[in-house]
Automatic annotation (TrEMBL):
Keywords: ATP-binding, Nucleotide-binding. Gene3D superfamilies: P-loop containing nucleotide triphosphate hydrolases. One of its GO terms (biological process) is DNA replication. CDD domains: AAA. Belongs to the IS21/IS1162 putative ATP-binding protein family. This is Mobile element protein. One of its GO terms (molecular function) is ATP binding. InterPro entries: AAA+_ATPase, DNAC/IstB-like, IstB, IstB_ATP-bd, P-loop_NTPase. NCBIfam families: IS21_help_AAA. The keyword Nucleotide-binding applies. It comes from the Bacteria. Residues 100-233 form the AAA+ ATPase domain.
Length: 252
């Protein structure tokens, strides 16, 4: 019996059936106890491999998405006062806007939940099977700067060009040099018709020309981002400031 099991493991390795190999021992014991027929046994083996590959693929895509730690919308607390009531959150999580290649702009003060929501929608999209990625604005700028001579950045560039969804966090937080403003515009111009874009920003669109130091580029960029777009304005006090912690205990 052990010789036959070893032979099965070798065959699994030859055909890259890692899921079957990993769960074989337990599954054979269960099959013997339940008296499974050949068809049920074979179907269960293939299902085990399918589940393993699905989970491995999801894990890989979540890793590639670069999601921040806080990105589970089950922990998100929608609040109409801050700009997003529960009904709208549920509608966003259905991802119909993604199928329609709609963009979403999350605008408002720092600490009001924009990044949390954007990352959570990205996680939902990855789990639903979309090619979705979360990137800080700095990540994108660095990629555009170095993609011509850094292989990993060239790979990143090609990956993003094929995305269904790209989240750009903290867009226009810092000014861009003219050459990078042009490069960023060209990137958006390449993807806006086939990729949904979610952006978070604490800058009003009217301030973008100052950050880019070019009103023409700012206008052209906004024209593409705001075409087929939902703008959600966040208000209120920073969650981090309201819940800031101290190294000291209660005063006596």
């Amino acid at each position: 019996m052990e010789t036959e099991k070893q032979r099965i493991r070798e065959l699994c390795s030859a055909f890259y059936l890692t899921g079957i190999s990993a769960g074989m021992e337990k599954y054979i014991t269960t099959a013997e106890q339940q008296g499974m027929g050949f068809i049920e046994f074979t179907s269960g083996l293939l299902e085990m491999e399918t589940v393993y590959r699905r989970e491995r693929d999801l894990s890989k895509r979540l890793k590639t998405a670069w999601l921040p730690q806080m990105s589970h919308l089950e922990h998100y607390q929608p609040n109409a006062e801050t700009g997003l009531p529960a009904a709208r959150l549920n509608q966003l999580r259905e991802l119909n806007w993604l199928d329609q290649v709609f963009n979403i702009v999350l605008m408002g003060p720092s600490g009001t939940g924009k990044t949390f929501l954007a990352a959570g929608l990205c996680r939902d999209a990855v789990k639903a099977g979309y090619n979705a990625y979360f990137r800080k604005m700095d990540d994108l700028v660095n990629m555009l700067k170095t993609k011509e001579y850094v292989k990993t950045q060239q790979t990143e560039y090609k990956r993003l060009l094929k995305a269904n969804l790209i989240v750009i966090d903290d867009i226009m937080l810092f000014p861009l040099e003219k050459n990078m403003a042009v490069a960023f515009f060209n990137f958006i111009n390449q993807i806006y018709e086939s990729t949904s874009i979610v952006i978070t920003t604490n800058k009003k669109p009217t301030d973008w020309s100052k950050q880019l130091d070019d009103e023409v580029i700012a206008t052209a960029l906004l024209d593409r981002l705001l075409y087929h777009c939902e703008v959600i304005n966040f208000t209120g006090e920073s969650h981090r400031l309201k819940n800031r912690k101290t190294i000291f205990g209660e005063a006596n």
